[in-house]
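Hi everyone, sorry if this is the wrong subforum. Our group has a chain we'd like a structural model of before ordering constructs, and none of us has done structure prediction before. Sequence below.
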Amino acid sequence: MSEHHYDIAQFIIDLSEIPSSDPLVHVGDPEKGMIVLQDGLPEVQEFELNTAWNTILKTANQHKREADLQSLCWVSQQIHWEYKGKTVSSPLILTPLNWKIAKGKQLVEIQAQTEQAFVNPFVANQLIRAFDLKIAENESLSPFEWVETITKLISEHSIPATFSDFSAIGNFHHHRYQVLRELELIAQAPELSELVRGILGNETNLSVEKTTLLSAFLAPADTDQLHVFEQLETGNTVIQGPPGTGKSQVLTNLLGKLLVRDGMTLVVSEKRVALEVLVKKLADSGLDAFTFTAHSQALPKTFITQLKNTWLALETDRKPVPPLLQLSEQLKASLQLLLDRLNNPTLMGGVSFQRYRELCASVNTDKATFQSDVPDIQLWLNEKPNVLQLLKQLGSFRILQGIKQALVAHPQPDQVFRQLSTEANWATATFTIETIGELEALTKSVARIQLVTNESYHAYFELHRQPAKRKRFEKLRLRFTELNARLELLKAEASLWNKPPTRTETLFWIEKLTIKQSWFRRRSWFKQLKTALRQQQIDYQTALHNWLTYLDVREELIAIRAQFADWGIERPELELESAAYVLKQLEKEDLNELNTVAKLPLARRQLISQNSDRIQQLYNDIRRYFTVNETDSLNHFGQFDAVVTEKLLGSLELLRALPEVVYRLICSGKPLDELEATVVHSNRVLLESHFPELAKFDGEQLAAKLNEILETEAGEFEQFALHIWQLRKQRFDHYTRLLRTPAAQLKADDKALKAQLKSGKSILVKEFGKSKQHQTIRELLTGDARLWIEILSPIWLSTPGQVGKTFPMQQGLFDFVVMDEASQIQLPNALGALQRSKRAVVAGDEQQMAPSNYFSGSTVAIDLLHQASWYWKKVPLKHHYRSEHPALIAFSNRHFYNNELVAYPTAKATYPLHWKLVENGIYENRTNVEEAKTVAGFLESFNWKRSIGIIAFSQQQLDCIWQYLSSKTQERISEGMENNTVFFKPLEQVQGDEADTIVVSMGYGKNTEGQFQLRFGPLNQAQGFKRLNVLLTRAKSSLHFYTSVSAADFPISSNESVNLLRLFLIQLEQLRDEQQLAIPYNLEIKKQTGSTLEIEHIYTHITEAQELVTFHRVMIARGWKINY
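Answer:
Right subforum, don't worry. Here is the predicted structure as tokens:
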């Protein structure tokens, strides 16, 4: 068997090995741990409270409260026989007991549950193993009837055993045998469920079908908790939930999601209080009516009563089903989009939003003007060092005014200066021009001269001058082209005729063929047509209509040609495209300009035409290399002095390396601060056009978005609870309608369903009318009543020991099983629930204590969480909500949880860790009296309005503390233990408890000789460090730690648990800065004023919308006002 693979047969072997010291095997000295009775026990009897009774009842209370185990029993009759080579005296019959303390009278009232009497499971198991004798089950026998039955059976089979009268009350762990019974049933099953096969490490055939869980919640969920639901949709899931990380809230939301589905869910926990927490959370949403806790005191009558109440509630409910709008999802999607944009590193002109804001704050843009062709901010910042270097070399950017980057890129820009100066002087002298505008006019006149000297110009000029004629021309040109193409296609029609008919003849023939004529007359016309046509097989009517179309097209073309001829276009096939081109060119020109050019002297026009290329080249070069205005002088290019030229030539390398957009910016000649202001301002204007919500973004807007999400979610939580209720009512109503529907209107499947529903309702109605002798839950779930039960009670909660007692061993009975506090569930104890279920959720904390082991055998000690973590995917929860101050969880976070827990502070919370050194404390006779007195003194003055947990490292030290408490304080503690506001325990019994204030007495210290022996009881045992972690994670608001030694008294130990305790004491002893505020995510607190925090740039630290919503929700709930 490998390290993580187990089989049920080995479990059964290990569980069957019971030590002889177990009171179920051998009573031994009945005076130790039992109340011996002289006679039998009536159903009700009072006893005077004494030390023995207090000890027994304290243990029974603990078992009942924490694990829902009814260990207190009356045992009657003893059987004396051999076991493992020794003679043992085993109790024969056990009867469960209820009790009630009359405090004023110092009496305890004992009530015997005689109808629940049963044979000692050790005896029954030993009879099977040793003698192959099985006792028939019978739940109706009284204790005395059981005694008679067993003694007679053993006598009949000659089993070597004797009996004696015996009557006593004590605590017996008989429930352990229920686990053995469950395993035997599983071993006998035709096949193991996929969950059992998987958890035991065997191969499975499980192809997990994706399960869709509704995206709605009963309570808030953080990102880690959402990952649980995502994983659960695809397979079995392990929730790794350190203390205070909202595990019960995750499970509550899960149960809400499962309530909208068909089928049943089982929740299992060793701690009954964990089940009660879930029921309470569902009750807060009004959904506890759909749950039932199968605890040790839950009789069938209790279940039937609850079913009846839920039936009546569904039957009479008339509320409409509210729609699930889930607007919060849309709001969070919008927030996520905003966060994504805020954290986009290049969104704002190439920089992040935060960098953009910083730049805006450092640059004065009051007088800046918008410019569309500016570099983005990041490009400007990248090039700014080069720009500064250029400014240093040039002295001023005014030198660059008018100079384009093309001139800088030219290999010899100085030659460009000289050449343009020479050409400009030539143009000035030749054409008597002085400005750039006059050169531009001269350049344009080149094309106009070519146009007016064109032969076609005069022919088409009249068309250009008259818009109506020009429009008519364009229309006819297009029509002419179209008709010419059609005519080419129709020319083939002429070849069909011996002699093509005229229009009149064609119309005559068409008429004769369409009017009604006698057969003889029509035959005569057809003969004539045959004579006219060359081909006899064609359709006459088609030939005539095509020929008529040909004639129409030809005549329209003749008319268009005549119109063109009137406009001087004699050969349209050749001239139309040329005419269209000339007219298009004329459209681009101003008539006045054309007339002006046409009136120029011939010699002037010839001079311009002869130098057209030179003129165009000069104009193009000026435009290519310089930014000029019409009024600029052509002599401008001769004005660059040697100094300017030298500076430009000396800066060519930097100028050429500049991006074009940056070069254009500095060529404006503005000072550097104005250039930067232009860049920032222009990018801001562009931002406002593309992302108007970012341009206006501020902390108030973010807070408003977050508050809106919280308000919306709060409404949706209530809405979802109502929706769940109504969905279950809809299913209930559907079944009810089906019962009223005539069979004739139903399909075969519905008829069968109706028969089951009718039978099931009959069973329940009968049970509703009874006052006793109800069917068991097991019987109801195996019959037709199950269909109704799945609607009325779909959520079941139970301890592992009650699963086998309550539910039939049926695969697939539950769609989901939730195993809470799984580190406390032994693997064998979990198999019964897993065998009955299809999909599993296992929740717990690896750093919490493993379960106690009552049995021998190494395999029994494996806990469910450990095993499940090997085979099913884990989802960690990392948001810690329990501690009101991060210091409470800091030590465990560092040493047990890799500093991965996110803890939140509470406004106005004081430093929570308090260490009290009892300098005169002496550890003697297993107690520390002075330390106990000091702790008692603290408790005497404690404000009992808040919950409290008192923990001592040993039971003896706890008893010592109790001894020094006043009777009033003892009474307060007892009352608090009853209503779960106080717990008073030794360290080894602490698991799953929490309280506002935790008081710890270490007790262990130096003895009378001054020696410190490092004996710490359970802390020295295997996995003692986990006990320390449990101890240090129980407090919600404050931890008071009492010791009689300091960290300096601890030598370095090889025991890791002891070393961790020493490190914790060092933390307690160190000076602390109580003003230091620990905020998660390393957020920047700009300012704190009382309970008001000013946080900068939170979006750069928390980038997920759900995470930010969680942070805001928790901080607001903890009394903070946050300004973002």
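For your construct planning: The two ends are 59 Å apart (CA to CA). The mean pLDDT is 90.
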